[in-house]
Amino acid sequence: MAETDSRIQRFHTGMVSRKDGFAFWADEIGPHVGSLDSPERTDFQQELTIVDTAGLAFMRVHGSGASIERKGPSQLMGAEVYPYHLLLKLDGGLAISEQRQRIELGAGDMVLIDSWQPLHLRSTELTNSWMLGLSEAVVNRWLPHADQTTDLRLAGGKGWAGMLSGYLRALDVEHLCSIQSPAERQLLGEHLMSMLSFALEQNGLSAQPGALGEPVSPRDGDLHARMRAWIRDHHADTEIDAQKLAVSFNVPVRYVHKVFAKAGRGMTFLETLQGDRLEAAARMLRSAAGARKFVAQVAYDCGFADPAYFGLVFRKKYGCTPRTFALQQGPVAEDSALLLR
């Protein structure tokens, strides 16, 4: 049956005979995932459903046992879009080898996979798994130290990892496909990512950058210092982002986030940028010239494209609105109170 929702993709071997299933699957899916093999080549069946929603790509696969060998970045949904994947084995066993070690997963266990790294994955029995593609935005928000959490088996029977595993095991792919409300899809993603974040924390991976025993290299320390100077010089540009910073220093976007994770003393790129913008706004509001500006103009001059958002984050940091902050600076600001609205 044709799928009308552009968020949903379905692939299955049901359109061919089981003896031709493996050849069909290798042609259809192989180019996206890597070299395929199976002990059931002559009696092969598989089904894959992908639901792309709220910064997460839900991939539900089940069928015959299979192995995948990937020698480069993942092409399924694109490593540049989903730099990490969370894999949950629902039934049976699975062996996975990434760049550093081999991991054995049992039913309910999970592992975070770097989509850019080579991978060898082998289901010892049937294939029955959830795979969640995590977008760059989701990783930056929830897993700022994702590069330090790959190759870690999250046991499905313990703590928050157990809760996350149970949540996913109970998730029905057809129900997921039926969710139309953006708010409900967002809520689902928030639940999953908060549980994953807590699960990693329980496994000792919530430390601040540099606190996991990995020293900051001189190169990364120097690069971070130069990136900080660049941000201070360009924070007033409302359109700067990690991509522009990466282009300026001729490095991948992922490396920008890695440098801040290691050398940023707990501050991500976005937190650093916003901090510089807020400090610039506070300096402006303390000055006679700045106190005479509209709050919206102060926001724009300091790099905030949305004055309402500027007011929200300013109040969160300084405990008062920009207008109140300016009025607290002295008589000059009081004379300008009507402008600061």
What can you see in these coordinates?
- The chain is α+β, with helices and mostly antiparallel strands and 341 residues long.
- It has 3 domains: 8-202, Jelly Rolls, CATH 2.60.120.10; 208-267, no CATH class; 279-341, no CATH class.
- The chain contains 15 helices and 12 strands.
- It has helices at 18-28, 30-33, 136-142, 159-170, 173-178, 182-202, 218-234, 242-249, 253-263, 269-286, 288-291, 295-301, 307-318, 322-327, 331-335; strands at residues 8-12, 35-37, 46-53, 56-63, 67-70, 84-89, 94-97, 102-105, 110-114, 119-123, 127-134, 153-154.
- The strands form 2 sheets. It has a 7-stranded antiparallel beta sheet with strand order 1-3-4-11-6-9-12, sandwiched between helices. It has a 5-stranded antiparallel beta sheet with strand order 2-5-10-7-8.
- It is elongated and about 80 Å long.
- 34% of the residues are buried.
- Residues 206-213 and 331-341 have low confidence and may be disordered.
